[in-house]
Design brief:
heterodimer, A: 67% helix, extended, B: mainly alpha
Amino acid sequence: MEAVTFFIAAIVSLAGACGVVLLKNPVHAALSLVATLFGVAIHFINLEAYFLAAVQVIVYAGAIVILFLFVIMLLGVDRAESIKTDPIIGQRQIATLAVGGILVLGALIGVAFSGDVTGVPSENAQKSTYEGGTAINSDHVHTNDGVNPDQNIKDIGRALFSTRYVFALEITALLLTIGVVGAVVLTRRPKGEFEPLPDEDPPSIYKDDSKNINLEAIGSEHSDTADDTKPNDSETEVTDETEVSSE
Amino acid sequence: MIFGLSIGPEYYLALSALLFTIGAGGLLIRRNPLVMFMCIELMLNAANLAFISFGKEMGDLGGQLSVLFVLVVAAAEVVIGLAIVVAVMRRRPKASVDEVSVLRG
């Protein structure tokens, strides 16, 4: 039964991961990420980490992906990205080769040292650890039976506030506080300057010849930087209209 | 026959390696900063799966506690990263990391 669950969840999580990488629309990629996270949560349940499965669903699928979707909608970047165009020539091929090579290398090493690479004690030692509860190393915090979800949560709570992990927990709280403050500072709008920077090459309307002639007739000094003059013109027109309408 | 198959840690480690590889490949291939963050999340999830798999095999709760800390760090990282993305996008409304090549503005 565990095998069936494993393979179904593995297919779901791998398909979701492929969707994140291959789907063009960022919204679709975020929804594929949800599928992957749910698959990993099922694996957590399979591995008797019940509390972390719940945390995975709540924090990742419920908070982080929603944050992604919120930013996507806020920025309006949900248009499809052309995945076919290669910004740097040959980058795709090199990335595929490198990643595939690393994977194959890892698989070869795993096959060659299949007993040693996991560091798992032999089958008998493992049995005795789980059933008898004897310690591999007395320094470790051991799970009790692990079958009961309530016991899992109690174990995690006790271990988190034990002397071994409580300092890391406090550091974590500090990290979250820094994260909140940093997000507020980064997204705070500075006064006055938040218009987008001009592009490298100005849009075609600024290259119009009649516009340049007009600017020279006015005697503007910076006719070469048409980006600066254009907003001023529009602003003056707007103010003129408003004055006329108010009169 | 699939019912009788016992799933050892090597299955989870192989799945974890695959997930990590897909995430790393996506990080190299994609040019949308938001999708790149999602690929980082994929890699963190692969690491979490390996942590819990090892933790179960060793009979040690430390794996699960490490995953808890990784979750917190991932949440903080996403918050800061998305704030940076929002701050950059406000100045340069193009969703590609190739155009953000200078620290100034």
